[in-house]
UniProtKB/TrEMBL annotation, chain B:
Domain Amidase: 24-463
Name recorded for this polypeptide: Glutamyl-tRNA(Gln) amidotransferase subunit A
Similarity-based family: Belongs to the amidase family. GatA subfamily.
InterPro entries per the UniProt record, alphabetical: Amidase (IPR000120), Amidase_CS (IPR020556), Amidase_dom (IPR023631), AS_sf (IPR036928), GatA (IPR004412)
High-level lineage: Bacteria, Pseudomonadati, Verrucomicrobiota, Verrucomicrobiia, Verrucomicrobiales
Enzymatic reactions: L-glutamyl-tRNA(Gln) + L-glutamine + ATP + H2O = L-glutaminyl-tRNA(Gln) + L-glutamate + ADP + phosphate + H(+)
Organism name: Phragmitibacter flavus
EC number: 6.3.5.7
Gene: gatA
Molecular function terms from GO: ATP binding; glutaminyl-tRNA synthase (glutamine-hydrolyzing) activity; transferase activity
Record note on quaternary structure: Heterotrimer of A, B and C subunits.
Length: 97, 483
C-alpha cells in the first residue's frame, strides 16, 4: 500500500457527488490524513490471511416462489419527491426524436 | 420517585399493580420533555397524542405492556418520520413499515415514543453531525453526548425516556452510553434483525437497548432477539431468558484485561475509575488475568476502510428519485443525482462516501479493502484465542471523558481514533456492553465514565450477569444529572 494522494474529484464523480472547490480542498486534506493513517496496515504481514467480509457465516436466503403481499403502488410512492399517474417522475434524460 | 425516574422494571410493577396507567406515563414524560427537553435536545420528534392513543389500548398482561421506548431516528416505526438526522430524509419522509425489532417490541406491549437525534446516517461519535440540531450531554450541557446514538443516550441519561433503542456500528451505543451515564448493549451480530434499520455498514450494524439499569437491558433484549427471514444475516439461534442470570454469583468467572487497551493516553480519571471497577469485580469473585489482543492497533484503519466502503454502496440508494431530498433545477439525470446528493448529505457523510468510493475503486480495492478484510480476520482471531483463557474482557469504553461541543469537529482523524476500544467487537461480531463505573469532577461538572465488557459470540448472558453484579455493588446507576 503505497502512500497515495486521494483524487477527490475522481472519487466524487464515481460517488455521484457534486463538490464545491472549497469542499474539494477541505476533503483533500482531511482524507489525505486518514489515508496516510491506513499505512498502519503495512506493519503486518497480511498476505497469507484469508480475507473476512463478515464476522458470522452468511448464506443465501431462499423462500418458496409463491405470491405474497407487499407494498401497494400507493405505499411505494408515498415518499416520492415527484410522482404522476402512479409513477416516479425524474428529469428528462432522452432527447425528442 | 417520579414516573420519569422509573426503570422499565419499576414502571412495569406500577403499571401491573394499577398504581399508574400507561396514558399517565406518556403524559408525564411529555410534560418533562416540554419543560426540560429543549436544553438537552435529545428528541427530533415526539408525538404525545399518538402515543397516548396507543397507551389507552395497552395490554398490561404483555411482558412489556405499557412501557414507552424512545427510538433512534434510523429505525423505521410505521407512520413515524425517519430522518436519520439528515436533510436527505427530513423533508417529510414517513416510514411505511415497522422494523423487525419494532414488530417484536410492539408484540411485547411496548409503545414507541419519540424519535431521538443522531449523527447523520449514524456516522460520528458526538451527534454533532446531525443536520437537524444539537444534542447536549445531560451531565454538562457544554459537552457532547457522544454518538451516533447521542439522542437516545441523552434521553435516557437525562431521564427524558424510560429506555431507548440505539444502533451500533463501531461503538455508537456504548460510547454515548458511557458519556451520558447509562447502560448500552451491542448484541452479537445477527442476534437482532437489521430489517428496517437504515443501513450504514451492513456487516457491522446492530440494534440494541439503552437503559438506566442492567436489568432493563435484559428485559428489552428478551424481546429484541430472534430469527427474521427478511434479514439474511439474522441468526437462527435459541434466545435465552436474559433475566435468568440476574443475581447469580460471579465466583469462578475469569476476566481478561487486554494490555493493548490499558495504554498511555487514556485520561487518568478514566483509568482510575476502570481500575477501581476491576477491583470490585475481583471482590465479587472474578479472577483477573492480563491478556493480549495483539492486532488491536489495526482496528481503526480496518474499520475506516470497511465501514465507509459499505456505507458508500448503501447510501447510493439516496438519489432523489424514489424518496428523500431532490434538488431543484434542470439538467440531465446524472446532474440531478449529483446535485440531490450534494445538497442532501452533510460533510461527514460526504467524507465517508468519498473514502468508501476511493477504497473500492479500481486500483485501490486490493490495496485497501481486501487488506482490511485480512486484518479483520486477525482481529477476530485475537478474540478467539483470548476467549480460550477468559470468559469476558474488561476495558474502558472510551479513552477520554466527554469532550466539549466543537472540540474535534474539524479533525475527523482524532475523532476516529477515539473509537479504538469499541470498534474491535463490531469487526469480530461480538456482544459488548457499557455501564457507568464512575463520575469525575471537571470544570464544575460531574462527567460519566463507562466500563466496557466484551463477551463471546451469543454470550450476552455473561455480560448481563457480570454487569448486574457490578451495578448492584456500586452507586453509579443511582446517580443522575442535576436538574
Amino acid at each position: 500500500m503505497a502512500q497515495q494522494s486521494i483524487d477527490i474529484q475522481h472519487a466524487a464523480k464515481l460517488a455521484r457527488l457534486q463538490l464545491s472547490s472549497s469542499e474539494v480542498a477541505e476533503y483533500q486534506g482531511q482524507l489525505g490524513k486518514v489515508i496516510d493513517y491506513m499505512a498502519t496496515l503495512e506493519a503486518y504481514d497480511l498476505g497469507e490471511v484469508e480475507p473476512m467480509a463478515h464476522a458470522m457465516p452468511v448464506f443465501d436466503v431462499w423462500r418458496e416462489d409463491v405470491a405474497r403481499s407487499g407494498f401497494t403502488a400507493e405505499e411505494a410512492l408515498l415518499n416520492a419527491p415527484r410522482k404522476a399517474a402512479g409513477q416516479f417522475l425524474v428529469n428528462r434524460s432522452v432527447e425528442d426524436a | 420517585m417520579s414516573i420519569v425516574d422509573q426503570s422499565v422494571a419499576g414502571l412495569r410493577r406500577l403499571l401491573v399493580s394499577r398504581e399508574i396507567s400507561p396514558g399517565e406515563v406518556v403524559r408525564e414524560l411529555a410534560a418533562e420533555v416540554r419543560s426540560r427537553g429543549e436544553e438537552v435536545g435529545a428528541y427530533l420528534a415526539f408525538d404525545e397524542e399518538a402515543a397516548v392513543k396507543l397507551a389507552e389500548k395497552a395490554d398490561l398482561s404483555l411482558p412489556l405492556g405499557g412501557v414507552p421506548v424512545a427510538v433512534k431516528d434510523n429505525i423505521n416505526v410505521k407512520g413515524d418520520p425517519c430522518s436519520c438526522g439528515s436533510k436527505m430524509l427530513a423533508g417529510g419522509y414517513v416510514a411505511p413499515y415497522d422494523a423487525g425489532c419494532m414488530e417484536q417490541l410492539r408484540a411485547a406491549g411496548v409503545i414507541p415514543l419519540g424519535r431521538t437525534n443522531m449523527d447523520e446516517f449514524a456516522m460520528g461519535s458526538s451527534t454533532e453531525n446531525s443536520a437537524l440540531g444539537v444534542t447536549r450531554n445531560p451531565w454538562d450541557l457544554s459537552r457532547v453526548p457522544g454518538g451516533s446514538s447521542g439522542g437516545s443516550a441523552a434521553a435516557v441519561g437525562a431521564h427524558l425516556a424510560i429506555a431507548a433503542l440505539g444502533s451500533d456500528t463501531g461503538g455508537s451505543i456504548r460510547q454515548p452510553a458511557a458519556f451520558c451515564g447509562c447502560v448500552g448493549l451491542k448484541p452479537t451480530y445477527g442476534r437482532v434483525s437489521r430489517y428496517g434499520l437504515v443501513a450504514f455498514a451492513s456487516s457491522l450494524d446492530q440494534i440494541g437497548p439503552m437503559t438506566k439499569t442492567v436489568e432493563d437491558s435484559a428485559l428489552l433484549l428478551n424481546h429484541l432477539c430472534g430469527k427474521d427471514g427478511r434479514d439474511s444475516t439474522s441468526l437462527d439461534e435459541p434466545v435465552p431468558d436474559f433475566t435468568a442470570v440476574l443475581g447469580k454469583s460471579l465466583k469462578g468467572l475469569r476476566a481478561g484485561l487486554p494490555k493493548e487497551y490499558f495504554i498511555d493516553g487514556i485520561d487518568p480519571a478514566v483509568r482510575a475509575s476502570v481500575d477501581a471497577a476491576v477491583k470490585v469485580l475481583e471482590e465479587l469473585g472474578v479472577e483477573i488475568e492480563e491478556i493480549s489482543l495483539p492486532h488491536t492497533e489495526l482496528a481503526i484503519a480496518t474499520y475506516y476502510i470497511v465501514a465507509p466502503a459499505e456505507a458508500s454502496t448503501n447510501l447510493s440508494r439516496f438519489d432523489g428519485v424514489r424518496y428523500g431530498y431532490r434538488a431543484e433545477g434542470s439538467g440531465d439525470l446524472l446532474e440531478h443525482y449529483m446535485a440531490s446528493r450534494a445538497e442532501g448529505f452533510g460533510p461527514e457523510v460526504k467524507r465517508r462516501i468519498l473514502l468508501g468510493t476511493y477504497v473500492l475503486s479500481s486500483g485501490y480495492y486490493d490495496a485497501y479493502y481486501v487488506k482490511a478484510q485480512r486484518a479483520r480476520a486477525l482481529i477476530r482471531e485475537d478474540f478467539t484465542q483470548a476467549f480460550k483463557k477468559v470468559d469476558f474482557i474488561v476495558s474502558p469504553t472510551t479513552p477520554e471523558l466527554p469532550f466539549k461541543l466543537g472540540a474535534l469537529k474539524d479533525d475527523p482523524l482524532s475523532m476516529y481514533l477515539a473509537d479504538l476500544f469499541t470498534i474491535p467487537p463490531n469487526l469480530a461480531g461480538l456482544p459488548a456492553l457499557s455501564l457507568p463505573c464512575g463520575l469525575v469532577e471537571e470544570g464544575g461538572a460531574r462527567l460519566s465514565v463507562g466500563l466496557q465488557l466484551i463477551g463471546r459470540a451469543l454470550d450476552e448472558s455473561t455480560l448481563i450477569q457480570v454487569a448486574h453484579a457490578y451495578e448492584q455493588s456500586t452507586p453509579w446507576h443511582l446517580e443522575k444529572p442535576t436538574r
